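Weekly modeling sync, notes
Attendees: AB, CL, MP (scribe)

Item 1: holo prediction request
CL wants a bound-state model with magnesium ion before deciding which constructs to order. AB pointed out that an apo prediction alone won't tell us much about the pocket. Agreed to run with the ligand included and paste results into these notes for async review.

Input as submitted:
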Amino acid sequence: MTPKEYSELALRTAAGRNYPLNMYEAGMGIGGEGGEIVDIIKKIAFYNKDIDKDHIKEELGDLLWYVNLMLHSIGATWEEVFDLNIAKLEARYPDLRFNADHAINRDVNAEQKAMLAQALGNYDWATAEDDNAVAFNTGALR
Ligand SMILES: [Mg+2]
């Protein structure tokens, strides 16, 4: 299943609220599902519970559902976020390996430039120009 296919299938079960309510629900849901994963890990770490991979996968799915809702509510795609995150990580870790010094002493400007370059590289200039042309011709552009 592709991210787009997942997104469309998952959104069938969304409440159908509009912005900003779906964004609020998504943000709270991400926190709640993240908390459920933390609780599983807590019980493994401190209660000597066995690792229940199926339960972890279930909660990760719940978390993804809310992330998908957030993406939908802000008009973004999984692919955009994948690309932005990799661009940021490559800027943060030039040798592509975790480095505590780079993690702590981040070059935020370099990371933001890398993400902007990624976003501009993915920007659909042709469609944007067409949209502006339509808006101009219909008087919608001010
Ligand atoms: Mg859950």
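Recorded for review: The pocket of magnesium ion is lined by residues 33, 36, 59, 62 (CB under 6 Å).
Action items: CL to compare against the apo run; MP to circulate these notes.
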